[in-house]
Write a structure and sequence with these properties.
By secondary structure, the protein is mainly α. It has 15 helices and no strands. Helix 1 runs antiparallel to helix 2 and helix 4 packs antiparallel against helix 10. The longest helix is centred in the first third of the chain and has 131 residues. It starts with a helix and ends with a helix.
Length: 769
């Protein structure tokens, strides 16, 4: 199964890899096409640049030509200006020449006009070509930028995809390797499982053969020994005592205790509700202290005064039911006889509710007809009348289901066991309905109380009574909610545990058989209790045997024991003498130790004072040496000052001093380096010595382990040889036994043949006779 899942996963990854590879090829093709388009656009841009350069060259040549023509026009205009005064002087003589000059002028003007027009046209063409070239260049540059960005994006996508593909390839390769390793392990496990299945099949076969043999044996014993099978018939099987489940009994008692507490709260709330309702009737709408109330309310008050005789039995019935559930009984619906009593008490309370319901409705109608009742109060009274009807109906429904649950302990045919779960579910639904109705009553009564408190004729007595009724209704609502949630939480447990059925039987258990079963259970418990009597304290058998041996040995060897006692006394006296001797030795050693400690202390004091004296002498010597050095320095400085004419001596001394100072510094640094190296080498040597000691210890341990291993190997070899020899001996013995058996069989066959021959001969003789 795991290999198939891994193969499917690998196939999915391969498909994804193929899809990504195809997408990569498409993207590569797109990138190549974009690169080709960008190269073509670059070529077009180069061509446009070349054409622009040619046009610029032509423009430069035209501008140069225009300049030349402008200069020529200026020259011609100058010549014309010079020729005009001459023409005035020589009008007559120069008429012919003026005509010629006029013709030349017209020719030049036309030529100039043509050149100007051509120049203007070229300027326009050049401007248009320049604008077009700039526009094309801008478009091409923007397109080139977009293409470059797209190419960069495509390249980034391609790089990311290649990276992703490489990662997926590496991941797939790793997964492949893991899957291969896993497949190998799974193959090994499969082989092991096959071997195990084969072994299990062999074991199963052996067990089947063994169990079939035991079954045949047990069936033969049952057929021969057992007079009848009491589990075959339900009426006999119902008398069998079931297994005692103490945890179930404790759980049921705990649940019954919780239910008793909830029922007690509910009974208290009901008592308060009916009592305060009776007080309210005496107060509103007519106060009995001022005026007489109506006959209807008088009768209603009389009935409400009897509420305790109907409500208190509910608590008593639940208490009896709780007391009937003990650790020694079997608590199922067939054995809970006290549930019938609780059902009867609940029936009597419902009869009480039915009796007071019409009076309650009429009392509310009378309140509505009074002059003090407003429209809002009338609406609340109508809602309360509907709620009271619903509450009575819910109690009737609950009593019906509880009466059904009480039937198995009295009339087993009244309720099928298959309907237990549905009845319990309906009880839970009825409890939830009771809780919902009590919430509605609480809401409507609180609204009614607030409206009545706002009335101008509302007395403090009415307000207090309404508050008490409202608190009792709230307590009823809370108690109903607790009971409903409690029953819903334990519903599954009730369904699973409240029906007892004997093994291998589907019939009903009658109350009589359940009672007999409980009696048998008590008898069995009493018998088991009688068997579990505490045994008298006695000496264990092994200890008694040991004491007997000691006693026999002591009586037989009394003289030996006396000798042993005498010897032990002598040893004790010797040991006491040695003890006194060693005590004296210890005291002497202690005295010697104290003297030695005193001597060492005195010596230490002397050495410390001597060290102080030596230090003082050293300090004095050092001070003397310093004084001598200062004197020599002064003596040296004085001749230097006095003989300032000798600079070579001073320079030589400085050189010597510097040389020795440098040498001292070098030697001190070498000394420090040597000290540090020596400390380092010492630490290394210490660590190596520790490692050497540990290695020697480990070597000794390994040698001991090797010795033990060699001993174990030799022992195992000896055992192997002995087992081989024993197996060979057994095989030889078995072969000998087989040979002897074959010989005996052959002898028996020969005897049988001889007997057959003799019998044939005897038969022939008898026939001849």
């Amino acid at each position: 199964m795991a290999s198939a899942e891994l193969q499917g996963k690998y196939q999915k990854l391969a498909q994804e890899y193929s899809k990504l590879r195809a997408q990569n090829q498409v993207l590569k093709k797109g990138v190549v096409d974009e690169q080709a388009n960008s190269a073509a656009l670059k070529e077009q841009l180069k061509m446009k640049d070349q054409s622009l350069r040619k046009l610029q060259q032509e423009m430069d040549s035209l501008t140069f030509r225009n300049l030349q023509l402008a200069k020529r026009v200026e020259l011609l205009q100058d010549e014309l200006a010079l020729s005009e005064p001459r023409g005035k002087k020589n009008k007559k003589s120069g008429e012919s020449s003026s005509q010629l000059s006029q013709e030349q002028k017209t020719v030049f003007d036309e030529d100039l006009q043509k050149k100007i027009e051509e120049n203007e046209r070229l300027h326009i063409q050049f401007f248009e070509a320049d604008e077009q070239h700039k526009h094309v260049e801008a478009e091409l540059r923007s397109r080139l930028a977009t293409l470059e960005t797209e190419a960069a994006q495509h390249q980034a996508v391609v790089d990311g995809l290649t990276r992703k593909y490489m990662e997926t390839i590496e991941k797939l390769q790793n997964d492949k390797a893991k899957l291969e390793v896993k497949s190998q392990t799974l193959e090994k496990e499969a082989k092991e499982c096959r071997l195990r299945t084969e072994e299990c099949q062999l074991q199963l076969k052996n067990l089947h053969e063994d169990l079939s043999g035991r079954l045949e044996e047990s069936l033969s014993i049952i057929n021969e020994k057992v007079p009848f099978n009491d589990t075959k018939y339900s009426q006999y099987n119902a008398l069998n005592v079931p297994l005692h489940n103490r945890r179930h009994q404790l759980k049921m008692r705990d649940i019954a205790g919780q239910a008793l507490a909830f029922v007690q709260d509910l009974v208290t709330a009901l008592l308060n509700f009916h009592t305060y309702t009776e007080q309210r009737i005496q107060i509103f709408p007519v106060d009995s202290a001022i005026d007489t109330i109506s006959p209807l309310n008088q009768k209603f008050s009389q009935y409400l005064h009897e509420n305790a005789s109907y409500v208190r039995p509910l608590e008593e019935g639940m208490l009896h039911l709780f007391e009937s559930i003990t650790e020694d009984t079997v608590t199922v619906l067939e054995t809970t006889v006290k549930l019938k009593t609780f059902s009867e008490h609940l029936t009597s309370y419902i009869c009480f509710l039915r009796k007071i319901l019409p009076y309650q409705l009429k009392s509310l109608e009378e309140e509505c007809e009074s002059s003090l009742c407003t429209s809002a109060l009338r609406a609340r009274n109508l809602e309360l009348s509907q709620d009271m009807k619903k509450m009575t109906a819910v109690f009737e429904k609950l009593q019906t289901y509880i009466a059904l649950l009480a039937l198995p302990s009295t009339e087993p045919d009244g309720l099928l066991r298959t309907n237990y779960s549905s009845v319990l579910t309906n009880v839970g639904a009825a409890l939830h309905g009771f809780h919902d109705i009590m919430k509605d009553i609480s809401k409507h009564y609180s609204q009614k109380a607030t409206i009545e408190h706002e009335l101008p004729t509302a007395t403090q007595k009415l307000i207090t009574t309404n508050d008490c009724i409202l608190s009792s209704v709230v307590a009823l609502t809370n108690g109903a909610g607790k009971i409903a949630s409690f029953f819903s939480n334990n519903l599954d447990y009730f369904i699973a545990s409240l029906s007892y059925g004997p093994k291998a039987a589907s019939g009903f258990i009658s109350p009589l058989s359940a009672e007999c079963m409980l009696q048998y259970k008590k008898k069995a418990a009493a018998y088991m209790k009688s068997l579990r009597k505490p045994l008298l304290e006695s000496v264990p058998y092994e200890e008694a045997l040991a004491n007997r041996r000691i006693l026999l040995s002591s009586t037989e060897s009394r003289e030996g024991l006396a000798q042993q006692v005498q010897q032990s006394l002598e040893k004790i006296s010797k040991l006491e003498q040695e003890k006194e001797h060693w005590m004296l030795e210890a005291q002497l050693a202690k005295i010697k130790l104290e003297k030695e400690n005193q001597r060492i202390a005195d010596k230490l004091k002397n050495t410390s004072s001597g060290q102080l004296v030596g230090l003082a002498q050293e300090n004095a010597a050092v001070s003397n040496a310093a004084g001598q050095d200062e004197a020599t320095a002064k003596a040296v400085s004085e001749p230097i000052q006095s003989t300032s004419l000798v600079p070579d001596v001073e320079s030589r001394e400085d050189l010597i001093k510097n040389h020795y100072m440098a040498r001292i510094v070098e030697l001190t640094s070498q000394l420090q380096l040597a000290d540090s190296k020596s400390v380092h080498f010492y630490a290394e040597c210490r660590a190596l010595s520790k490692r050497l000691a540990l290695a020697e210890k480990s070597k000794e341990a390994l040698t001991e382990e090797m010795k033990l291993a060699s001993q174990n190997i030799s022992r195992l070899q000896d055992e192997l040889t002995t087992t081989k020899r024993s197996y060979e001996d057994q095989l030889s013995m078995m072969s000998d036994h087989l040979c002897s058996m074959n010989e005996t069989l052959s002898k028996q066959r020969e005897e049988i043949d001889t007997l057959k021959m003799s019998s044939k001969g005897n038969s022939k003789k008898n026939k001849s006779r």
